[in-house]
Structures are given as C-alpha cells and as structure tokens.
Amino acid sequence: MRCKPSILACLLAATFGLSATAQAMTVGFSQIGSESGWRTSETESIKAEAQQRGIELKFSDAQQKQENQIKALRSFIAQGVDAILLAPVVETGWDQVLKEAKDAGIPVVLVDRGVKVKDESLYLTKVASDFVEEGRLAGSWLAAETSGKCDLVELQGTVGSSAAIDRKTGFGQVMDLFPRMHILRSQSGDFTRAGGKMVMESFLKAENGGKGLCAVYAHNDDMALGAIQAIKEAGLKPGKDLKVISIDAVPDIFKAMAEGETNATIELSPNLGGPAFDAIDAAKAGKEVPKWIKVQGPLYLPDTAAAEYQRRSK
Ligand code: AHR
After folding, report:
1. Looking at residue 142, what is its pLDDT?
2. Is 173 exposed, middle or buried (0-12, 13-18, 19+ CB in 10 A)?
3. Four-CA torsion 185, 191, 192, 197, nearest 10 degrees
4. Which of 268, 271, 295 for a ligand 1 pocket mutation test, highest count of atoms within 8 Å of Cβ?
5. Is the entire prediction scored with pTM above 0.70?
6. pLDDT digit string (tens) for 203-239?
7. How far apart are the CA of 157 and the centre of ligand 1, in A?
8. Of the four listed, 5, 239, 242, 269, which is most buried by Cβ atoms within 10 Å?
9. C-alpha to C-alpha distance for 305 and 286, rounded to whole angstroms
10. Which ligand 1 atom sits closest to the C-alpha of 221?
C-alpha cells in the first residue's frame, strides 16, 4: 500500500479496510476560474471532498483560458498524477492533450462541463448535469408563467462552453413550440455578474428602455444578478415588470428572490467531487464506469426563497 500524503490516513485505511486507492491518490484539478459564485462553491466543495478522502489535490486556476488548462494538464501528466479532474472552459480543442493523458495511463474525469472529442475513450466519464434539460425547464416555466406570450432577452454564458450551448439549445426547443414567444436579443455575458449587467444595459437601451420586454433568461444566477441591477437602474422593477429566470441556485439569487426581484432558478449542484472521486476509484478497481454521471437539480420559486437563502448562507 502506497501511503501518501498522510501516514495516519494510511494506517486508518489498513485498520478499517478503507479503499487504499482513495487514501493514496494524487489528483490534478484544472478549474476554469472563479467567474461566478457557483464556480467558487464548486472549487471549495471539490477541495473539501479531496481533503476528507485523504487525496492530495493539485489545483490549477486557468483564469478562463483554455491554453492555461492545456498547460496545467501537461504539467499534471509530467508529475505523474494518478488522475485528473478537468472542468473544460470550452467544448472543443481537447483531443491532443486528452490523448497525451490517455497514453500516460492517467484517467481524466470531466466535471461540470462536457467536451466534443473524436474518441470518447479519451476521458473516463463526465460528472455533470443535463444542460439541455435545464434550458428546457427554464423555457417551460417561462411559457407557463406568461401563457406562451413573451418578448424576452437571453444572457448567454461563455461562448463555446457546453453550458452556454446546451442551455441555449434546450430553451430554444421550448420557444419553438410557442409562436408568440420571441427571443429578441441574445448575447454572452460570460457567466459573470459584471458581464450580465453590461449586456443587459445594452439590451435595455436597444429595446426602448425595456418597456416592451417581458422577461430575461440568464444562463446563470450571477448574470441574472447583474441584469437585476441594470433593470433597477433603468427605473423598472425586476421580478415584476420583467420576469427573471436563471440557473445555479446560489445563495444571492435566493436573497434577490425573497426580495421579489427574481422569479425562478434551477439548481446546479456544485458537489461534484464525491461522484468524480468515486468514479476514479471504481475505474482503478477495474469496475465499469458510465460515460455520463448525471447530477440533477429542481426549479426553485419564491415560496421557499427566504428559507433557502438562510439554509445556504450558513
Ligand atoms: O458550467 C456551469 C456554469 O459555469 C455555471 O452555471 C456558471 O455559474 C458557471 O460559471
């Protein structure tokens, strides 16, 4: 049994029969950055999960740049880590570096976002929600809420990311069913609060101060929070004059919802470390691992917002 980083953990493993693999692993984690509250929670949750399992986690923050993620992956490979977690900022451009990891015998687990590669065996599994389904859920809620009649704007996530592509696709599928629902404007706010505010300001300017608009669909809560600020500064009431729906379920959106300034959010769990490390353990024990480990989250509405805010901001 290899005992790193903690001898105590190793002794515990030997004494209590815990998995030797889980106790001894070194895992590289290439994170996208810290663009949103959700991302920060995901980072904290994965670090905490690694620590709890006695895993040595080598963390790299890519500052939203794919080239930094590719460099980080190459460095993890050179260091001979046991496995890699990758939260890919965009979908394409990963074939070569994933092949290098595979050739080195290092399993790669995608966390939260997906990739488009020619050969799916280049990664072990993806631990992520179904972003298309999230978009459909958002669209269905809005259609029901507006009786299928609404001129709206859309704040997209990072260009080229699976989260933005799929959330747009799912939402668009529902819009196509309702001839009186129209996405008048759609632009990326890069999943940030500042981006959401800036793009919303330009939408409001271009749409007669927002007077004819019925709703905003934001691909994440942080952009919705930025949009709420822009709507208020334009003299309108977010959540009332314009309905607001977004995705993530971070504490701040529940605060805004409890204050009547937004209408709905769909939960994306940030706790992806547990299933990701379990998948690595399973693969190392020679077990079959599904190609997609799905995480699911419900839609939250104002009736539980105050309680959710309290529960999540502890
Ligand atoms: O990929 C998931 C998305 O990325 C989250 O919804 C968003 O907040 C984050 O930045």
Report:
1. 98
2. middle
3. 10
4. 268
5. yes
6. 999 999 999 999 999 999 999 999 999 999 999 999 9
7. 8
8. 242
9. 44
10. 8
CA gap 77, 28 in Å, rounded: 9
**pLDDT, tens digit (0-9, with 9 covering 90-100), for 237-263:** 999 999 999 999 999 999 999 999 999
Which atom, in ligand 1's list, is nearest to the CA of 247? 6
Averaged pLDDT of the chain: 93
Asked whether 160 and 92 are in contact (CB, 8 A), the reply is yes
CA 304 to ligand 1 centroid distance, Å: 23
Q: How far apart are CA 251 and CA 159, in angstroms?
A: 25
Tokens of 260: 């009547």
CB of 38 shorter than 6 A to ligand 1: yes
> Closest ligand 1 atom to the C-alpha of 161?
1
Residue identifier of the C-alpha nearest atom 3 of ligand 1 = 163
Residue 280 pLDDT greater than 80, yes or no: yes
Ligand 1 atom nearest to CA at 248:
6
DSSP output for 204-221: HHHTGGGTT--EEEESSH
Residue 131 beta carbon below 6 angstroms from any ligand 1 atom: no
| Ligand 1 binding pocket includes 269 (Cβ within 6 Å) | no
Q: What pLDDT shows up at residue 16? A: 37
